[in-house]
Amino acid sequence: YGDLSCTDIICCVLFMLVITGYMVVGILAWLYGDPRHVLYPRNSTGMYCGIAPNHDKPNVFYFNILQCATATNIMAAALQGLQCPTTQPCSSSHRPAALSSLTVYRRLVAQESVLLFSGVSLVLMTVTLITLTLQPPPTSLSLSDMMNSFNARDVGVRIFADFASTWQWIVLGLVIAMLASLLFLLLLRFLAAILVWVLIIGVLAVGAFGIWYCYNEYTLLANSPVTYNNVGFTTNVNVYLQIRDTWLAFLIILCVVEGLLLLILIFLRTRILIAIALIKESSKAVGYMMSTLCYPIVTFVLLLVCVSYWGITALYLATSGAPVYNVVALNASQGDCRSITGNQTCDPLAFNSTLYPTCPSARCVFIKYNTEGLFQRNIFNLQIYNVIAFLWCVNFVIALGHCTLAGAFASYYWAFHKPADIPACPLVSSFMRALRYHVGSLAFGALILTIIQVVRIILEYIDHKCRAAQNPCGRFLMCCLKCCFWCLEKFIKFLNRNAYIMIAIYGKNFCVSAKNAFLLLMRNILRVVVLDKVTDLLLFFGKLLVVGGIGVLAFFFFSGKIQVPGSLFRASELNYYWMPIITVVVGAYLITHGFFSVYNMCVDTLFLCFLEDLERNDGSAEKPYYMSKNLMKILNKKNKQPKK
């Protein structure tokens, strides 16, 4: 690594400028935004309900909700539905003390079941809701019963109580999942060959059983008079299973597939042995560098920072703008309120109703948030910038993880005497190398992927907007575009992953590394396919084994089928025993996926190093092979001893 230099400097500078702009956007959003707009409702004067000085009054009570109808209220129509011209005080409960009036009751049915339950103040009342308020009240179902049936808060409290009483056991289950994943990866050094051949023989055995079953059904229906001409077309699949020719077709298909699998196994047996040897070598590499299994935590933390920053910035941008207050006549029928049009701004702290002596119901009411400023007019553009910068950062974090792990595992492969020649702290060294020299290259690959993802988002948006058009040609074209860009994204991810490996090995720029990796893989396409499928098969089996085992164990434990001695845990005390089970299963999957992703990166890195080793070295004293002795034995290669 002595000849390394910074790569893709232009893209590095561009990425730094985008990150700086992203920070500026976040600062501006923090200065102008106020997330209380979406967290707390406002009363008529614009004061928040649920925080000081109304901390004990979290709800808004619409005194006369019928005033919100723009079709019947002139002032509501003048406000264009932005605000309801009725008194809106903060309330400490969903239902005031006195509810003897039937009209008030009808208003509260709509208000409590639709508005106050969500905790967000109403700004627009639809005709449907007005119709609901005119229906007679129920006679057998009380309002409290209706609210209790939809009380999600109680469900949340019960779930929280279940987590509070089982969190120690949930953590224990996740620790068991971590240890089981680690044990499986380490045992692959000894069991990889056995597992691979057992799985291959198992697939062949399943095919053989299918052939026997189809032949058996075919012979049982030897005297059946039913044919396709008698049946015709029907949606009942069982009818076709009574036809002898159906089982003959199944038998032929399975025989062809079984024969192809046997031929593939015979002609690709050497490549399967190479894949098994690389899997064993990967298990050794992970065993020598156990710190690599902790790197997914770093990636997770960085991704969490990116997601949190994006979410907070989006929230503050969406709530940017100072509140706007207008003079509104709450009851236009009292006095002469023709001079009040609802367009005159006011200050709620300095407002004096005596300035409108002919309209005693004149009040300074909160209407909306200001959208006229330069910053507010560009909120949509800033939100787009927020999304693009977020995607670029996320893809860069993933690229940094790939390059870091690839550099660590490459240092293992290119150590001639293992483990003596493995450098100290290979993971930290690789991480610092990636940050010092290859930020531009990683940002370049992340930018290409980001552009494709933005195009896919635009296509999804257009498809969502045009879905009601029901144009067959347009929908077919849109479906083709979405499919093409989905495939393109998968290909770019594959190309980027191998390009990052080549960057970690040779320190070249992104384009050169991507070209070299692609050409190297194309020259060894059969080995690539075999290794990929064998690795996928093993890792799928490992995930199924670990996650499935932990899930079954969690089910028997939290459902009470496994009793814990003493009074440490009682399953009967849980409200929803499936919640901790789901938590353990999801957590076990995430842990297993994190561990196996490191292992998969190790296999890919060692495979590219192995291909480079084959092409660049010949086993001579000047160019010795760096592969393991097992791989050299499979390939009938060996290193020549230097002449004394």
UniProtKB/TrEMBL annotation:
Query: What InterPro entries has UniProt attached to this entry?
Result: Choline_transptr-like
Subcellular location, in the record's words? Apical cell membrane; Cell membrane; Membrane
Which GO BP terms, alphabetically? choline transport
Reaction catalysed by this chain?
Answer: choline(out) + n H(+)(in) = choline(in) + n H(+)(out); thiamine diphosphate(out) = thiamine diphosphate(in)
* Main subcellular location: membrane
Task: Give the highest taxon in the source lineage.
Answer: Eukaryota
Q: What would you give as a GO molecular function for this chain, any one?
A: antiporter activity
Q: Membrane topology for this entry? A: Multi-pass membrane protein
Report any Pfam family annotated for this entry.
Choline_transpo
Residues that span the membrane, as ranges: 6-32, 114-134, 167-187, 194-213, 247-268, 288-312, 384-416, 437-459, 534-557, 577-599
Coiled-coil zones: none
| Keywords annotated in UniProt | Antiport, Cell membrane, Glycoprotein, Membrane, Transmembrane, Transmembrane helix, Transport
List the GO terms this entry assigns under cellular component, sorted alphabetically. apical plasma membrane
Q: What does this protein do?
A: Choline transporter.
Which family is this protein grouped under? Belongs to the CTL (choline transporter-like) family.
What's the protein called, per UniProt?
A: Choline transporter-like protein
Q: Which organism is it from?
A: Pygocentrus nattereri
